[in-house]
Design a protein that fits this description.
Its EC number is 3.5.4.25. The chain starts with a strand and ends in a 10-residue tail after the last helix. The protein has eight helices and seven strands. The protein is of the alpha/beta class. The radius of gyration is 16 Å and the shape is globular. A hairpin with a 2-residue loop joins strand 1 and strand 2. Helix 4 crosses helix 5. The chain has a seven-stranded mixed sheet, with helices on both faces.
């Protein structure tokens, strides 16, 4: 594993003051972040979101997905708790990259769903690698998470790496007319757990 810690700094946000920790993956030439709030030491599980980068949703306010609202909701929940971490992983487009995601969006414009579009481009439905999390968590001395996610595959991937998931916290927000098919595919083909269809 080639993940190394670089530096930390304060990050004031509308949800309060976070500390931003920068990590470098020298092997893949990628940079990752963890936003933390409060004292993460001790044995209590840490409220956490493992969020894969989505430039279109996080920064450009795209309504094709629920990523931007999920990120903001996670920051809000951590600020309310006063203690937590958001792992921001640079794995755009479920790991296929920004330009390939645009190609996938074009295929979706022509009728494919997200899984079909990825497969037509020669990729798996989800190409993300969560192994980069372990050295980041070790650096922060975090061993157990209360994970904000609807994705049981993410829970299993982290547990398979030896990370304790003390609790899965449903994290549903951002449904709109433009992402209804996207969310239906998440549930039907990727097994995401949505308790309330009106707010998935």
């Amino acid at each position: 594993m080639t993940i190394r810690f670089v530096e930390s700094s304060k990050l004031p946000t509308p949800w309060g003051m976070f500390v931003m920790h920068g990590f470098s993956d020298d092997k893949l030439d990628k940079e990752h972040l963890v936003l933390t709030m409060g004292d993460l030491s001790g044995n209590q599980p840490v409220l956490a979101r493992v969020h894969s980068e989505c430039l279109t949703g996080d920064a450009l306010f795209s309504m094709r997905c629920d990523c931007g609202p999920q990120l903001q909701a996670a920051m809000h929940k951590v600020s309310i708790a006063g203690r937590g971490a958001i792992f921001y992983l640079r794995q755009e487009g479920r790991g296929i990259g920004l330009l390939n995601k645009i190609k996938a969006y074009h295929l979706q414009d022509c009728g494919a769903d997200t899984v079909e579009a990825n497969e037509q481009l020669g990729f798996g439905a989800d190409m993300r690698d969560y192994s980069i999390l372990k050295p980041m968590m070790d650096h922060l001395n975090v061993h157990a998470l209360k994970l904000m996610t609807n994705n049981p595959r993410k829970v299993k991937a982290l547990e398979d790496m030896g990370i304790t998931i003390a609790e899965r916290i449903p994290h549903q927000t951002g449904r709109n007319p433009h992402n209804a098919k996207y969310l239906a595919t998440k549930k039907g083909k990727l097994g995401h757990l949505f308790e309330d269809e009106s707010d998935a």
